[in-house]
Write a structure and sequence with these properties.
This protein is of the alpha+beta class and 229 residues long. It has one domain. The chain is built from 4 helices and 11 strands.
Length: 229
């Protein structure tokens, strides 16, 4: 835990001038059925106040005796797309992806700090979210490249008491558990994007996260977040 704290000091120093999260998207592919994942989950929780994070729980560990209550096949499919993009033999956990540009073991604290610092230096699209009841207004001023406009619904935090599998007996804490992730449009290079999106019941008590990404698994050019109402 001390090593995590030291590494995060670097991240905190790098973002100290910004009052809100840096527009960097950090995705963690994880599972409660994986004994190597809790350290990565803790790291994601520490990063949560500094960057925009998504906890994407995969379902291919669910046959090991414990079904992760946050798991989905959609998260597995997204990770498989990244695996093809990064020319990996296959998906693995824990895997962290920073701005869709680089992947590494999600427990590697030093690598996470370094990659986030690099990501903060890149040009970002200016975007905003404004929630009004059961809808959200999306505004993107311009993007450096053509990109898909993605919208995620994620729970702020949650805990599980695991009673089987590799983490049997452990109480696990998570942040930003993804409930849904969908493409809501496409924005052209140098163009603006405006749209009002109706949110479903899964958005109650959840965060809304917006990001623009080159294709299905390319670089992420910017992100924004609206906290749970």
């Amino acid at each position: 835990m001390l090593r995590i704290a030291v590494v995060l000091t670097c991240v905190l120093a790098a973002t100290a001038a910004a009052p809100d999260r840096a527009p960097v998207l950090v995705e963690l592919f994880t599972s409660e059925g994986c004994s190597s994942c809790p350290p990565a989950d803790r790291l994601l929780a520490l990063l949560d106040s500094q960057v925009i994070v998504l906890g994407e729980h995969v379902d291919y560990w669910d046959h090991q005796g414990w079904r992760d209550p946050w798991s989905s096949h959609a998260s597995t499919q997204r990770q498989e797309t990244y695996a093809r993009r990064f020319a990996l033999e296959g998906p693995y956990t824990p895997q962290m992806v920073v701005d869709g540009s680089v992947e590494f073991n999600g427990s590697d604290n030093r690598r996470a700090a370094d990659e986030i610092s690099r990501a903060r230096t890149r040009q970002k699209a200016s975007m905003r979210l404004a929630r009004h009841g059961n809808s959200v207004e999306v505004a993107i001023d311009a993007v450096p490249h053509a990109a898909n406009v993605m919208l995620a619904i994620a729970l702020p935090a949650g805990e599980s008491q695991v009673s089987a599998g590799e983490n049997n007996g452990r109480r696990l804490h998570h942040v930003a558990m993804v409930k849904s992730l969908r493409k809501i449009g496409v924005v052209k290079k140098g163009s603006a994007f405006r749209q009002t999106i109706e949110l479903g019941s899964d958005a109650v008590g959840a965060r809304v996260i917006l990001f623009v990404q080159d294709g299905d698994a390319g670089p992420v050019y910017g992100a924004a977040i609206s906290e749970a109402l």
